[in-house]
């Protein structure tokens, strides 16, 4: 398990919010709530006291992003699981939904098994009855799992999930797959499991300044350790002429499927050539300064920096609207920065770590004053206001130093101007010659 792999960036000055409270006053998402056998509360959209979630379809077709939140996860009061999944390929939306519906329960079972295993090592013969019961309660419902055990839970459940997907009759995942970024909050612990190029970013405070802390690594094919594994498996990594800044994973003999990440569920045509479904696992102990965590697909991070995301969420009038406002701002950024591109699907979950009413209420009152001033100014001079807004955003971007965890800390991967960056190329590999061992096994079981 890695440490909290992060890059701290302080936000200098105050970001002028463009959020008009009136645009979101009527916002009230449908809260579809389901219950698991262990009492967990499951949501795939909406919000709760500590969570806001929202997704919006882009202009590439069906929305392939999905997400879920499990409260009282594993049956433990206060424990929360959040997951955001970004599908790609012809049936990426089905893969994404399949992972969303099955991964949390597999991980939950792995955690319960680890808790039981941990309790077995406690020697009850050396303890009195009261101490024994205290140890039992701690072992079964508190932060007793070791860090290597947490990593083992994620690795085991992700591997089982990939095997389950390979055997799924109704979901063809040979040339389709999805990424996953997941966070578990248990007490004062954050455990993050990441597969692919979605991202989790923490907002914390230092001397009254908001700081963005990237909790995950964008797992791209050009990262040296990822590229080495791919080359050892005879896969290829290169950028096409039309996308010189986007490195992709290709099969040995065909220029396909051209995957823009080095780890993913599904995509079994590449599983023999370096693509894996093993997540990176990170840990962070929550402090009093930590405010919230944002999990989002690359549709958000391609157009907004970590600092911009943190400031948008910190400036929302209400927690329940945080994810929707963030997604809307990302869509606006796509249109402004890349007018010739197709907007990508966007999905985000905002997990608030404590009662940060002081931060939000201050932002709300400030934004309300700015909103009133903006409407008054806008009514007097529409065109000059628009011009000032654009120039302000440009200067703000120049002042922001956004951290990227990975190979180069001073650089961010972003969408290409004028191009619709896809996560995989539409050309499909020839099945007969390149059938993955895992998928071919599945086909034999189906009698094909």
UniProtKB/TrEMBL annotation:
Bias (Polar residues): 437-448
Pfam families: PP2C
PROSITE patterns per the UniProt record, alphabetical: PPM_2
Region Disordered, residue ranges: 362-403, 424-448
Domain named PPM-type phosphatase: residues: 50-353
InterPro entries per the UniProt record, alphabetical: PP2C (IPR015655), PPM-type-like_dom_sf (IPR036457), PPM-type_phosphatase-like_dom (IPR001932)
MF terms in GO: protein serine/threonine phosphatase activity
Domain of life: Eukaryota
Compositionally biased spans, kind Basic residues: 369-393
Protein name: PPM-type phosphatase domain-containing protein
Organism: Trifolium subterraneum
């Amino acid at each position: 398990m890695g440490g909290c792999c992060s890059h701290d960036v302080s936000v200098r000055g105050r970001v002028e919010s463009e959020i008009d409270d009136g645009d979101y006053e009527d916002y009230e998402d449908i809260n579809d709530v389901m219950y698991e056998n262990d009492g967990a509360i499951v949501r795939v959209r909406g919000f709760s006291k500590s969570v806001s979630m929202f997704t919006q379809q882009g202009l590439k077709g069906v929305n392939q992003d999905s997400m879920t939140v499990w409260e009282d996860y594993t049956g433990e009061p206060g424990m929360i699981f959040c997951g955001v999944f970004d599908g790609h390929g012809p049936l990426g939306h089905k893969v994404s939904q399949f992972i969303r519906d099955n991964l949390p329960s597999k991980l939950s079972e792995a955690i319960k098994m680890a808790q039981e295993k941990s309790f077995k090592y406690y020697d009850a013969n050396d303890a009195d009855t009261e101490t024994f019961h205290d140890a039992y309660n701690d072992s079964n419902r508190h932060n007793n799992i070791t860090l290597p055990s947490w990593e083992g839970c994620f690795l085991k459940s992700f591997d089982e999930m990939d095997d389950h997907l390979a055997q799924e009759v109704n979901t063809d995942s040979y040339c389709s797959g999805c990424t996953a970024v997941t966070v578990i909050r248990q007490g004062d612990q954050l455990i993050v499991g990441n597969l692919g190029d979605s991202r989790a970013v923490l907002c914390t405070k230092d001397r009254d300044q908001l700081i963005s802390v990237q909790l995950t690594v964008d797992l791209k094919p050009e990262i040296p350790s990822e590229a080495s594994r791919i080359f050892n498996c005879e896969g290829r990594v290169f950028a096409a002429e039309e996308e010189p800044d986007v490195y992709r994973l290709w099969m040995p003999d065909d220029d396909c499927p051209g995957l823009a990440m080095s780890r993913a569920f599904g995509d079994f045509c590449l599983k023999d050539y370096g693509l894996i479904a093993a997540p990176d696992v990170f840990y962070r102990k929550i402090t009093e300064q930590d405010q919230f965590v944002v999990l989002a697909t690359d549709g958000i991070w391609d157009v907004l920096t970590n600092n911009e995301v943190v400031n948008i969420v910190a400036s929302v009038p209400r927690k329940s609207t945080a994810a929707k406002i963030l997604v809307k701002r990302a869509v606006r950024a796509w249109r402004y920065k890349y007018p010739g591109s197709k907007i990508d699907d966007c999905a985000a979950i905002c997990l608030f770590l404590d009662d940060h009413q002081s931060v939000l209420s201050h932002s709300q009152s400030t934004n309300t004053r700015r909103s009133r001033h903006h409407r008054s100014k806008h009514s007097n001079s529409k065109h000059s206001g628009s011009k000032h807004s654009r120039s302000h955003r440009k200067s703000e971007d120049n002042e922001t130093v956004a951290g990227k965890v990975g190979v180069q800390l001073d650089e961010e991967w972003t969408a290409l101007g004028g191009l619709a960056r896809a996560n995989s190329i539409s050309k499909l590999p020839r099945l007969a010659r390149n059938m993955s061992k895992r998928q071919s096994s599945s086909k034999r079981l189906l009698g094909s």
